[in-house]
Every structure is written in C-alpha cells, then in structure tokens.
C-alpha cells in the first residue's frame, strides 16, 4: 500500500525528531533543517505534504512558501505551518501566505495527526479529480478528433459524388485542396493576410475546398457529361452550378444555425466550428468563378470584394483544369499554364495570389505529380 510522503522542515533537530517519530508509523517522512536543503530535496522528489517551520535562519518559512508558490512544480503542494508563533495575527498571516493549515508548538500529537491526515485526504481527492479531468479531456479530444475525421470523410465522399457526375476525378479534389493550402501558407505571413489566414481560418478554407463544385450535382447529365465544348446556352446553364452549390450549403447552414439557437447557446459565445466551416464552404462554392476584374459569375464581384477563400480556389481550380487531361482537351504543359496564370494577374486572378503562386510553382508541380490521374 502506498504510504504518503511528508517533508518536515525545521532548523531544530529536536523538533524534527519529535515530528518524525509521530508521523513515521503511518507516513514516509523526509527531513530538512533549512529552506535551502528542503528546496534542493524538492528538485528530485515531491512529497505529498510539507510541514514547515516559520522561524528559520537565512530563509524563513514565509520566504520558502513564496518560492514554492512561484514554482509550477511545487505550487500545488499543501503546506502546514508548524511554529511557535501563536498570536492570532501570525495565524492569519500564515493562511494569507498560502498555508493550508497552522499548527502551534508545542504540538498536540492527536491534533497534529488529525490535521495531517485531513490535508493528505484532501490532496488525494484533488489528485483523483485532476486525473479524472485529464482523462475526460483526453476522451473529449479523442472523440472530437474521431468526429472531425468522420466529418472530413463524409464531406470528401459528398464532393467526390459530385465529381463522379463530371468528367473529372476524385484526385481533382485532392489536388485543388493541396494547391489552396500551399497558396494560403505562402500568403499567411504577408501583411494584410495574417487576420484572414489565421491558423483556424486557414484550416477551415482547406477543409472546405473539396466542396467548391458541389453544385454540379444539380446540372443535367447531357450538359455536365458532354464530350466536347458547350454551346453558349449550355455554358449559361453550367454556370449555375456555383449558385446551386452556394444555396445548397446555405440551406444546410440555416439548419445548423437553427439547431444552435434551439440549443439555447449564448449568442455572445464564439460560433460553433460547424457554422464557421459551412460559411467558408458556401463562400467557395458560390464565388470561385468570380474574376478579379469583375467579369466572372455568379455575382460579378471584383477585387477584394471576392472573398479570399474563393480567390484562392479560383487559381487552384484553373491551374488544375489547364494541366490535367479532359475529354475536350489535352493537358497543357505546366510552363504554359504558369505563363497563362501570370498573364491573367489583375484580370482573372488576384495579383498577390499570382505572385505567391509563382514563388511556389515547384510545390504545385510536386502536388500535381503526386496526385496525377
């Protein structure tokens, strides 16, 4: 059976001997005749309780307790002052300094044992509670992680379902997601992007990227699967996939908001991650075909009025479309695709994002090679 360890700190050998004899039958007792030697001992071993004299040379009990409270390793150790200072103000000061109890010398053995036992039982209860809390935190983290994995897999499966109705492959989803993350990481340290691309938001953008073409589920097969160029009329219908996707995600978002409100959640608290993620997904689905010069669709947004997540996806999507084989075209050489994107800076694409793209074109090549169709 585990015997709790009690450290007795007193500069008088007789006091150490008396307390050691009293405690030894039930507890493992360590002794120190000065604050310095006690602190040195604590560097290698932590007791369950400290009995601390106040009036000691060089470093007194108050100063030693202050050192214990300032050290993260020892700040939670319970300390009982055992002292000849018996005035009411002395006892008040002892508790004010952080002692858990105060025993006046000469000690009464039964009282001293009862107070030691009480404080050790309290510490044991606190330790059990801390262990339970740690376990619960770990369990919550584990289940949250599993839930996020399941959510990611569901979203990818849904996005790939949309792609199976198109002439593209599931690797298009993975490639564009990789391109978006690479661009976002390159932009993250730049002035003007730190807030929009804080780590939490960056991860939401990357997670939402596979949803960009979810609206293609709503396009008729004879247009979506046409093995050739679309007529102007067909292309107008194809363009509606952006609006369809945005509206579908907005409906899902509305349901999540309703559940959030029905749950009585405090509006002053941060929005749940599900809401934040879906807002990013809706933005990307709805606006990834907008163009920097305002000639895109569905809303003809221009410049920074186009949400950053959509501007990132716009470049990633075009690069992938140019460099991969489609039923209506051969893949472009990467050099030609890069030159085209550079030429479209300020027209189709955000010039700053194009500059970031040029700086990491080797990373784009590596992603394309690793996830080729």
From TrEMBL:
The entry's protein name is: Two-component system response regulator
Quote the CDD domains the UniProt record gives.
Answer: HDc (cd00077)
- A Pfam match: Response_reg
Q: Which part of the chain is the HD-GYP domain? A: 147-373
- Positions where 4-aspartylphosphate occurs in the chain: 53
Alphabetical list of InterPro entries matching this protein: CheY-like_superfamily, Cyclic_di-GMP/3'3'-cGAMP_PDE, HD/PDEase_dom, HD_GYP_dom, Sig_transdc_resp-reg_receiver
What are the TM regions of this chain, as residue ranges?
Answer: none
- Name the UniProt key words of this record, in alphabetical order: Phosphoprotein
Question: What is the phylogenetic placement of the source species in the record?
Answer: Bacteria, Pseudomonadati, Pseudomonadota, Betaproteobacteria, Burkholderiales
